[in-house]
Every structure is written in structure tokens, then in C-alpha cells.
Amino acid sequence: MDEILIATLRSGTPLVYAALAGVIAQRAGIWHLGLEGLMIAGACATIIGIVVTQSVLVALIIAVAVCMLGSVLLWLVVEKLKANQIIAGLGLTGLGLGGTTLAVQSIFGTQAAVSAPFGLPKIGPAFGPFASLSVLALLMPVAVIVVWIMLRRTRFGLRLTASGEHPFAARSAGVNPSMMRLAALLIGGVLCALAGAELAAGSLNIFAQNMTAGRGFMGFAAAIFGAGHPIGASCAALFFAVVGALGIRAQIVFGDRVPHDLLLALPYIATVFGIWLSARLRGGTKALTGFGELRDQ
Amino acid sequence: MIGNVVPAVRAAVFIVIALVLCGVIFEIAGFSAPLMFESILEGAFLRRGALEQALRWGLPMFITALGVVISFRAGYFNIGGQGQFYMGAIAAAFVAEWLKGSPAALVIPACFIAGMTGGALWALWPGILRIKSGADEVITTLMGNFIASLVLVYVTAGPLKDPSGSGQQASSRPLDAAYRISNSIGLSPTIIVIAILTGVLVWTLLNRTSFGVLAGLAGRNPTMVEWQGARVWRIGLASFLISGALAGLAGTIEFMGPNGRLAGGFLPGHGFTAILIALVANLSVVGTAAAALFFGGLASAALFLPILAGLPSAAIDIINAAISLFITAKSGFIDRLANLGKGQWTKS
Amino acid sequence: MILECRNLTVRYGKVTALRDVDVQLEANRIHAVVGQNGAGKTTFARVVAGLVRPDTGDLRMAGAPITAGNVSISRQSGIELVHQSFALPPSFTVAEAMQFGADGGTLFTKKALERRWQAHLDKLDIRVRADRRIRDLPVELQQAVEIARALVSDAKLLILDEPTAVLSPEGAARLFDQVRHLRDRGVTVVLILHKIREVLAVAETVTVLRGGERVAGPLETTQIDSDRLAELIIGSASDELDEEDRAALTGAAIPAHAHASAVSDGAAPVLDMRDVSTLRDSDGPGLESIDLSIRPGEIVGIAGVEGNGQRSLVRTIAGLANVSEGTVGLDGRDVTRKSLADRRVAGLRIIPFERNVEGLSLNSPLWENWSALGLLRKPLFATISPGGFRRGCVQALDNWDVVYADVNQHAGSLSGGNAQKLILSREIDETARLVIAAQPTRGLDIGATAFVWDALRRARARDCGILFVSSDLDEIFDISDRVAVMVSGRIQAVFEPPFEISRVGAAMTGAVQ
Prior knowledge:
The structure holds three protein chains of three kinds. Chain A is about 70% helix and about 0% strand. Chain A is an all-alpha fold. Chain A has a two-stranded antiparallel ribbon with strand order 1-2. The relative contact order of chain A is 0.20. Chain B is mostly helical. Chain C is an alpha/beta fold. Chain C has 18 helices and 20 strands. Chain C has a six-stranded mixed β-sheet with strand order 6-7-8-3-9-10, sandwiched between helices. A six-stranded mixed β-sheet of chain C has the order 16-17-18-13-19-20, sandwiched between helices. In chain C, helix 9 packs antiparallel against helix 17 (about 475-480), helix 13 packs parallel to helix 15 and helix 15 (about 415-425) packs parallel to helix 16. The longest helix of chain C has 16 residues, at about 170-185. Chains in contact: A-B, A-C, B-C. Chains A and B meet through helix 3, helix 4, helix 9, helix 11 and helix 12 of A and helix 1, helix 6, helix 8, helix 11 and helix 13 of B.
């Protein structure tokens, strides 16, 4: 049982951070499909940072800076150039995936995985069997609460939500929705950096190409599944993680009798299920309309 | 025609901006940007046989991109072209295996039908989830891509595994030469004819049928079409199915033509590039053909770069990603510039 | 002078919404700004509130110049605007809706927040609990909350944009009481109105806008009569309008119903709803036991405060709602279980509530918008000739006097009146039997409004039945042969001409007839 719990927390922590970033962006009116790209950028920057500077703290600062830079880029394109959020988000994701490959190639001259000598600090033996979890896993519930308080119990959060839900109301109250979106994306950038850091340096201390494997998208899906609520989204993220952990457990139990690759697909199937369920419960998950507007003439 | 000038100018300007961003990234990563662009230009368009290579890569992407055009026009964000492409190829491979030994005149059409059906079915479930339950198709089709690529790995390492295969990449048993529609270079009259035929059919569908006009209206405003008495779900489901079938057709072509077998994770950027092609073309069929040639060239350069120039092929991924970042951008400034001749200075 | 505006000019593209408007308003009074749709009233309000930056001109508040086009600065100087369609995020609670626009309270608890704003609401005598969600409130309370929101800080000048459009006559009277109360407490109030009756009932001064220009005012309302005011509002543009229509357009007097048609009593109804109920949905309450019939050549007006089931009624007749009980008959056939496509074949035509959402695809060419109905009569994959549809469209648009440049231009580039004419040209054809006209004149200027009325009267003359839904009683009285009042999804009462505003108004508030 402990093993499954540990596996869930280990794989769920990055998902929760990504989901929180998705929730904040969604509240401010941005459907953030760049989470995947920011997350891998954060993962890559953390590992390279550790290798180059030998300091976890400096590596995290680098990762946060890179992700915030990416967030600003997305904000410029979506807000200032009025680009389609979905396509621009996918573009940012592509930039993250391609850029990290290029960076690894340029620094290490290889496309193979890069490993760091050490990773994030562990929470230590005081936590018994959970000793090998990283501090970011321990901080995860704190982050959820902080985001919840920020969104629901501060004026800033109300203004952020108003900017997404009813931008005209925000403008009428003297709030600039565009700047609120920038703030939301920047906070999301920090959370994505943490998600990437946990993914790469939480236990394996390794960076490999495409290692996020859709986790950013699953974080985005968790934000939808959780109805844009930080606690709901975190539960959704942990649900995806549990399904993944059970799949891995099933491989150990059943061995070759169940196809290994298809068990790996379980979290993705769970995500589809989650999106379908929330659509059924809430009568549609479509917040954005007008995709046909991509065509000009 | 005048109406197409503004989007074309805008696309060109933003592609240039995207390339500048790429140049900055290349320089930061420690590569010389001019050298990189020069090598890409040479690999894509200037070296001997470049056109042939651009067509080899571009034609299948053209077909998948036509599917994207249809679903985007109808207002559905089917970004699962990659998964539908894989499922088409897998279905064709199973049928080829099953009919092994039968005459090519039977096997080849059967494979095409199977491939298109496979792609269409992989687009059907997100379509139903979207239209009947309102589940966001962006996420479901994206997840469909991940699931399909795992299915592909499973199939190539399991039921269709080539026992003589070696190395890390599992692959399926090769297709009999008699069933191949091109050699490994990948361009043959058959493929060209299929691509042209598909282009003509899709153009007719979009511009000369009720479906085409209604899908265009529904894509921009489904509510209005509903109030006119349309069953919007029929239009939506049809566009999902057709777009999936086209991606499946492209998968079949890649399997029966240039590749001749399935390999785990082959052509990973196909679906994404097809979306870009459709967007750069502003969702027009003719434009899609032109854009497919351009991105086909870039795709062939991705192979050329590491081998002949010693540069990483990720550069092409970055160019594609940067273009996608900017391609849907609008700019009042460019619109005014393009409208200058028409004297339409307006304040936004 | 609390507010001084000089030379305000606002252009949207080629359209000039305001031209050189000078207005000075005295403190501590109730001012009205009147004008027809398109006169520039809302633009004026938004410029003063800082939401729209004027191209030229400047603003002074209590003698001090303020930077135009900045909401925060306008609010700091004490200007607050209550929008016509309210600007409150629907998922917020009342307390949150107050808080997000207020000063102070960076971090708070739910309890403290609700206590703070409940006290504010109580002080203003607005009876709503601070923990209720905006989306659950009826329209009248939403407006009250919006006014309370505007008064969270020390407002000196409160602008209400068309506040009576969503209210019953009684609701309007209550609002006017509250406005007087605010004036007594030292707030200067500007009411944007378009009914002379209301102007004379509440305002102390009146300023008239027409075509983006100030044509008169501020005038003392004690020194002007309603005929003079109607002339100022309408101008010379409408010489062909008769007395009745002029009165209906300006809300000067109650129309005496001179346009009645001769309906033959024996004719079978084109619409026959019997005991129809529907389920509650996102549009609000469902229908409850609706009995309604419309004979050929008859216009039946549906009156009522918005949100009382008018939309459900239209969707039920269109076949887009779930009917739980009862039957809907169309031109003698039971269509309760038929789709909208079948109903359209049977002669149903709809001018929907939301012109720009349900009526037109704004980013599609005119000819595609016009052709939709024709295309739907063909099989989905039938080949068509776009040229034929384009030619048909050109002919129809010319017949209906639509001003346009090219059938390939986007529907969104048409003015509101021309967009509505495009819909009329598509919906009112030879085979129409029942036309649903849902708020068909909302937002239209005088000429376009008269055009729509005329088109409906001509359709009536051809023996169509017409269901006319509007929240404007003057308009309903002018055009209808019979008026049904809807309250909470029921038909509260049915009136025959001559109509009396007091009785109809009483029915709108739910008083049993």
C-alpha cells in the first residue's frame, strides 16, 4: 500500500503543480496548453543548472526564470497579438520540447539523457517510508492551500477571476484584464518550473528528451476536471497519478500477461474519462468558442 | 483574390518574426544562426533532388492537413491527426498481414479502405464525446495521440513484431514489395495521383456542397445554424470522420510507400506539422498545397541537417513550434499596411 | 457644475458615435439623457466613466480636470456607471462582486467579507443576502446589486444606463424612488433613458442626443412638454411615421391601437399550444401550462419583464426545448415531436432574440448567411452552385433595401438595422405561416424600427400569424392585436385592445388579473 502511495505522490506532485498553473491561467481567461512546454523547460533547466552550478537553489532559480520568460512570450503572443490560445500554447510546448533537445545537444554534444549528481533535498528519515520523497512533494499541499487562498480569499484573486469570467466587469471596475493575465501566467510559470524540477530532480535526477510525456496536458485536463478549483484540480491530478501507479503495480503483479505498453496508456485514458465525466456533470467543458475564427476570410 | 492578400501578408510577416525568434534561440544555444538557416535552406530547397524530397514529405502531410482544414472549418479542434495517422497505418498493416499472398489488386485497395476506416474510427470517439457530451476535443484528441503511439509500440513489439529486427526501435514485418506503392525514396505516380485526387475532392466538398458551406457557417457560429434548423451534430460528426479518414489515408500511404513497415514512434511530428500547414494556408485547400510543399521541404531538411551539416534536427522542430506560436496572431498594423491600397484606414 | 464635458468626439472606424458634445450638469440633481438607439447615449456614459477614450474633448469633475479614458481615475473622482446589461461576474457571490471593485481588504475571510457587504446592502435598503450568487438572482435584484456595487466607494456622480429596460413599470417606479433617495443623500444621478414618460416622471433636467450630437439641454423638465421633447428626439427623419408610431417610439403616450387588423374568427390557428410545460433549463424557469393560439393575420404580443420564460417559449415553438407536457400545433399539424427542420418546412420562421448569435454568423459572408435556410433543404452532401445562391441573395437584399457593398462581405460589417433586414429577407418569404419576432427592434434606430414594424404588418396582411416578443410595452401596444403577459413561465393574463398600461403593468408583477 505504501508503495502505491509513494508512487502516487512521486508522479502526482508534478501533475499537481502543473494543474495549479492551469487553474490560475484558466481563472484569468487563458487556456494554457503551454504547460507541457514550460514543464519540460523547467525540468531541463533544473538538471543542467545542477550539473553546471552544483547548486540546487541556483538551478531552481534558473528554471523559474526560464519558465517565466516562456510565460511572458505566451502572454505577448496571446494578449498583444491576439493569437489563438490553443495554437500558441501548442507552439510554446513545441518550443519547449525542441529547445530542451537543442540545449542538451549544444551543451553535452549528445541527445542521450543527462543525469545530475544529486537532486532536490529529500524530506528525510523522519517520515519513515516516505523519506525518499522530495521537499517539493511535502510542499505540495501547502501550495494548493496558498493558491486556494489567493484565488478565493484575496482581492487580487477576485480580480483575476473577474478578468477571466467577465473582462468587461473587470474593466468597469478599473482592473486591466490583460495585466491580470500576465500575473496569472507568471505565477503559472513558477509553478511549472517547480513541476519540471520535481519531475526531473525529485527522484531520478535525470533529464531525457520528451520526458514530460503529456504530463503538462494532463495538468491542463486536471484543471478542467477540477472545475477550475485548486483543490478539485489537485484531486483530479492525484487521480490520474493513482491510475498510473496502479498500472505500474499491475505490471509487477501480472508480468507479461498484460501488455506493458497498454498499461502505460492508463493515465491518458483516465484523463479522457475525467474530461468526459466533467462534461457530463457540468454540461460541457467548452469554455472557448469560435475556433472557426481561425479562418480570416 | 484580393481578400486573400491580407492573410497571406500577415502569415508571411509572422513567419519572419518566428524565424527571428528561432535565430535568437539558435544563437543562445551556441549555434551560428546564419549557418543554421543556410543549411536548412539548402537541405530544404536548394540541394539536388530537393523538390522530390519536399514532395515525398509534403504529400502525406498535405492529405492530413486537408483533414485538419475540414475539422477546423467546421469549428472542431481536432488536433489528433497524429493518432489518427498512426491508427490508419496500423489498420492497413493488419489488413496487409491478414491478406498476405492475395493479389496486389485486392490487397492495396483493402489496405486503403482499412487505413481510412482506422483513422476515422480514432476520430469518431472524440467526436462523439464532444458532440454528445460536450467533452473538450482538444484534450481528448491530444490524449488520443499518446494512446495511439503506445498502441503502435505495442503492435510493433507484439502482434506484428519483426523477429529479425534488431536495435532498440521495434518494428513490424516489412510489407511485401508487391504491395508497396513506392520505393523507399518515397515518391511515385500513385502517391501523386492520390494526393491530387484527394485535393480535388476536398476542394469540391468544401466549396461545392451544402456540407461545405454549412460547416463553414457552423464553425463560426453553430448556434445560428441550429436556429436555421440544422442538425449540427451531423455536420460535426461528419467533419470528425472525414478528417480522421484523411489522416488515416496519409498513414496508409506512409506505411505502404516510403516506410514499407511500421516502426514505434515513426514520424512523430507529422500531425503537428499538418496543423501548421492548414493554419499557414488560412484553411484554404490551394494554400494547403503550397504550404505542404514548404513544410515538406523543412521535414526533408530535418534528415539532411545531422547527416550532411552536422547540425541537430531539433532546429526544424523549433522552427515549426515558433511558427505555430505566431501563425494565428493578428496585428492591426499589418492589416492596415495590407489595406493601404484600398484606402481602408480604420481604427480598431 | 459637478460634471463638465467639452467637445467630446468619439469615432468607431467610419462611424462617429459622438460629435462635439458639450454637457454641463449641476450637482445634486437628477439628470436625464435621452435619445433614440444610436444617438450616442451609452457612448456618452462610457466616456464619462472612463471606459471609452474620446478622440477629442475633455472632462472636468467638480471643477477639476480628469484624464479621459481611465476607469480608475474616473472612479477616484467619484464617477460610477451602472451598465444596461450588468457587469457582474455570474459565479461571484454578492459580497465578492462588491469586494473586487472596492478598496481595502487585500486578504479576508468569507465571514468578514459577507458581514462587511451585508451592512452596506442593509444601509442602502437592498434586500439580498450577501452570500447569494449573482447568477441565481432575478434581474431586478441584479440591478440593485449593481447599484450597490457602484456605491461601494464615495460616489458623487452615479450614471445609470437604460436602467428601466429590464424592469416592469412598478419596478421602474421603485427604482425612481431609490434614485430620489440617493439624490437627497447628495449623489448626483444621471439616468440614460429613452422614454419621455419616464423622463418627465423622475428627472429634473433633460439633455437630448440625436445622431451623436447634443440637440438640446440640459433643459428643466418643468419647462418642456412631451410633444416638444418627442420632436427633439425624433427630429425630422421620420415625417412618414404616423402619430401612433411616433408615440410608441418615444414613450410619450400610450398608443391607442389604430393599426388593428381584421382577423376572421373562423380561421384555424397557425399556432396552437395546449397546456405546454417544459423543464427548467439554463435560460431560467421552464414553461408552465401554456395555452396560446395565434390566428392567421394576427399579431400576438408577449409582454413581461425579461427572464420570465419568453426565451423558453420561443425555443419551445422552435422545437429546441424539451416539452414535458402538452402539444404544439403549427398550421393545423401537431409538431410537438418534430424537429426545427420539419417545423420550418411547415412554415415556421424565426427572428431570434440574439441577432448576432442566433440570427447571423457575423464572420461569414452575407450570401452564406442568407443561403443557410435554402442549403438545409438539400441533402447534406448534395452539390450546390454558390453562384446561384449569390444571385438569389443579391436579389433578396435589393428587395429588402439592405445597404451593402458586396455579398461576400461579412455580416458583422453591416449596421444593426441592415443586419436585421438581412434576417427579415431570409425569414419572411412566401411560404411563411408563423413568424416569431423576438425583440426584433432591440438596438435599432428609428428608421430601422419602423421598417421592421412595417415588414411585420405586411406579413400580417398576407395572413401570417406573428408572435411578437418585446420588453417594451409601448411597442407591444402599438403593433399587437392581442397581448399576453408572461410571469415565471406562465401566461399571467391576456388583454384585448384598447390596452391599459396600468392593468398590463400590474399583470407583469404577477398580480392576479
